[in-house]
Amino acid sequence: MFLQSLPEILRWPILFLIGACLGALINLGIYRLAFFVNRNISPWSPPPSAQRLRTFRDRIPILGWLFLRRESDVFGSGFWIRPLLIEFSIGLGLVWFWHWNMQGGLYGGSSVRLVADQIALTAHWNFGWFLFHSILIALMIVATFIDFDEQLIPDWVTVPGTLIALLGHVISPTLRLPFTEPELLADRIGSLSYWSPDTPSFWHESPSGLLTALIILAFWFFMLLPKTFTLRFGLARGLQLLIASILRPRRRTTAAVGRIQNRQIFTQTKIFTLLTLALMLLCVVVYWLGGERWSALFDSLLGLAMGGGVVWAVRIIASQALGEEAMGLGDVTLMTMIGAFLGWQAALLTFVLAPFTSIIVAVTQVVFNRENRLAFGPYLCLAAMIVLIGWNFVWNEWAAKGVFEIGGTFLLVVILVCLGLMGLMLGGWRLLQYQFTK
To answer: I need a labelling partner for 218 at 20 to 30 A (CA). Which of 269, 276, 366, 414 fits?
Structure first.
């Protein structure tokens, strides 16, 4: 590969420049994909007015923000500091992330004695993980800052990310997270599968496996649909309202001007319908072809289901504990994306870790800023980053032997206990809000 063949004195500056350019794309996404306030802060967006044309020097990563300070009267004093720091940090971060991946950080690096037939392959695997997980990290950064700004994560960040994850696993099954399997004289790198760390299972190759995959896609489709559901007027009335909010039939009542109001299915609904049907067709084709591509796609879909399903349950419990909607569906779609990239085991570990990454920052917000809104999405992203960077220790040294080997029943109990603790924690959070904001 080109970058690996370069001497370090050239490789690091090139990687830093690539990272800074990636940071510029991230900044563009943060400001242009925002849901409520779509701002033209990025130099790659249209200027705020015809009198404020952007020049080439404004588009230079990092340095360009120093020239854009002239727009402080439009976007506010110091608006340029955060995007400048993002581009600089992404530049440095990409240099480190490359080095970490190329040294085999995901599976232990030089501490692992690989079998002879895998030594030549690790460079390609490391590069694939570097690209694949760099995309995940970039999307999580966009989601994080939009969530900080608006308390919302747009589908146009998480849905394309989920598609990239699913297609990536079909194209290259080795993109699944690795783990090491000790052999007699050396170690072998294996791909994390839905049965890990147990003995291999081939249940996914049966028709039940295909049916499960299609049901997961249907669940994801239903979650994405713009809809309304309430039990305020009973179950039957709630279901009727749900169906009507999706299909949007013609009204039977007339408007004040005496004509029937026309309604149409949302464009978003049409797009997600076509997208889901295409993914279902892809599942059928890949299932028919079989092999590792189907195994990887099935693992990714189970990750999608675990990530989205658990956080959706948290959303319901948290809303009941706080007496108001505690999470948006953006947090759910964010976890479906993370699960699709990393698999169901890593998604579960991310979910378990997220409350601990959030509580310190949340209490600090309340005590010092009197800020009682909790953007949970950034802490899901932070937990996912910790799981990813610490994967070798998290899986090989702890989770595989200490948690997942105990069995599915125990994991189900763990999930239920964590959901209960989440409800108690958020109930306490509600009391804390009351004490510091009354």
So the answer is: 414
> Do 55 and 47 touch, CB atoms closer than 8 A?
no
Number of alpha helices (DSSP H) and beta strands (DSSP E) in the chain: 18, 2
Strand partners, 70: none
- Burial class of residue 82 in the structure, from the number of CB atoms within 10 Å of its CB (0-12 exposed, 13-18 middle, 19+ buried): middle
> If you compute the radius of gyration of the chain from its CA atoms, what whole number of angstroms results?
24
Q: What is the pLDDT of residues 68-102, one digit of tens each?
A: 999 888 888 999 999 999 999 999 999 999 999 99
| Confidence at 1, pLDDT banded by 50, 70, 90 | low
Classified as helix, coil or strand, 120 is coil
pLDDT in tens, 27-80: 999 998 887 777 889 898 888 776 678 889 999 999 999 999 998 888 889 999
- How much helix, strand and coil, in percent to the nearest 5, is found in the chain? 70, 5, 25
- Residue 435 CA, chain-centre distance (Å), reads 33
CA atoms within 13 A on the CB side of 158: 28
The set of residues, in sequence order, having a beta carbon less than 8 Å from that of 400 and lying 6+ positions away, is 179, 196, 197
**Tokens describing residue 312:** 């959706």
The stretch 104-110 carries a mean pLDDT of: 86
Higher pLDDT, 422 or 290: 290
What the block records as the tokens of 61 is 């990563």
In sequence order, what DSSP letters do the residues of 57-81 get, joined into one string? GGGSTTTHHHHGGGGHHHH-TTTTH
Q: How much is the mean pLDDT over the chain?
A: 84
Beta bridge partners of 182: 187
Task: Give the DSSP H or E segment for 295.
Answer: helix 292-322
**pLDDT value at residue 87:** 97
Going 126 to 127 to 131 to 137, the CA torsion angle's sign is positive
Name the pLDDT band for 320 (thresholds 50, 70, 90). Answer: low
Name which of 155, 134, 126 is nearest 33 in CA terms.
Answer: 155
Contacts 24+ apart (CB under 8 A), 101-104: 101/126, 101/127, 101/129, 101/130, 101/133, 102/4, 102/126, 102/127, 102/130
Closest among 417, 433, 435, 297 to 365, alpha carbons compared: 433
Cβ(255)–Cβ(132) under 8 Å?
no
CA atoms 286, 292, 293, 298: torsion sign: positive
- pLDDT tens-digit series, residues 203-240: 999 999 999 999 999 999 998 988 877 767 777 887 88
